[in-house]
Amino acid sequence: MERVDERANGGCTRRGRVDARFTRRTAFSQHCHHTISVDNSPKSCVKRVRYTQEALEAKKQREQAKLKEYLILADSVLARRKRKDWSKDALELTTRVLQINPELYTVWNYRRDIFLNGIFPTSEPSQVNDILSNDLSFTMTHLKQHPKVYWIWNHRRWCLEAVPDGPTQDDADGWRISNWNKELFVVEKMLDVDARNFLAWNYRRYVLSSMPVKRPEQTELAYTTRKIEANFSNFSAWHQRSKVLTSLWDQGKLSPEICREKEFDLVKNAMYTDPGDQSVWIYHRWLVGQGKDYAILSREIASVQELLDEQPDSKWCMESLVFYKQLTLQNHTSRLNDAQRQQIIQSCLVLLAVLQDIDPMRKQRYKDLTEGINRFQTNA
């Protein structure tokens, strides 16, 4: 019989990995007889559980029995897959396996094959739509417990792309519009729970690009504003904002000059709130761009210097000052006299020396930057 650990079926590469993953999930899910002591101290209201030796042994046996049952079930599913069994019984078996272990991607693949080869060919479009809607509900149950398992998101994507035309010829996109709108609602609810789930953000971008009726980009910009204001340390929201603004600027729907000034105000607020947040500084560098605008570059250098004066140990302030001053030396050397150029070079060298002390893990990087700054002296 085909085993769950065989590479040829796209399952886990080692049986032990499947066993261990399953055991971890079920280790504390079973009820057992135990004694309870309660910590009544003012600092704690947590019940401390002490298991008797007999209870621990019984618990272990139950887990082993559960694991054995799962492995038999998984082997049965993979054997059916090898036989190309596209029956409803096989579909039910995939459901049972995935309810236990939603990370077994081979079974997700098999489930889709059953739909395509066994279920859909004998179903009406309305039935196909209902089946796909039910599978979206099925995966939603798993996402609540495993929001970062890629294979669940991947199956949802397949379900949405498989929605047929309907319900009528005059409304051929009706089912698709309904399902995609629901999907956007679902993923945004998940981001309300975990605003920095990068898988959810990537999936959300996919949903936005796939919707039959596109969401207005101004609405999307407002969404990123809400997410950023709720938590400045949201790299995905800042990244999405940069993509939306670029699109709006390219289409001429917003003035880059006017808009950038507002964005600098927003990111400055975030910088002062948490100067150690990398995502804020990355967005700030995106706004500054290549530093071609001398007035903006000089103003932002002064702004960052002001923050460094208040936060003298801020690594990101120092790194950014070096970066922006280097842009000044690269792009605007004709505006500088020798004294100004030397002052910029020396200030960069001082900052890089401090960075080597406070951030020794990246010492070589700062040494390389120091060599780059010194070249401006030899090229003068």
TrEMBL record:
GO cellular component terms, A-Z: Rab-protein geranylgeranyltransferase complex
EC number(s) from the headed UniProt entry: 2.5.1.60
Biological processes annotated in GO: prenylation
Keywords of this entry: Prenyltransferase, Repeat, Transferase
Sample GO molecular function, one term: Rab geranylgeranyltransferase activity
Family annotation (Pfam families): PPTA
Top-level EC class as recorded in UniProt: transferase
InterPro entries: Prenyl_trans_a
Reaction catalysis annotation: geranylgeranyl diphosphate + L-cysteinyl-[protein] = S-geranylgeranyl-L-cysteinyl-[protein] + diphosphate
Family: Belongs to the protein prenyltransferase subunit alpha family.
Function per UniProt: Catalyzes the transfer of a geranyl-geranyl moiety from geranyl-geranyl pyrophosphate to cysteines occuring in specific C-terminal amino acid sequences.
UniProt-recorded name of the protein: Geranylgeranyl transferase type-2 subunit alpha
Species for this entry: Fibroporia radiculosa
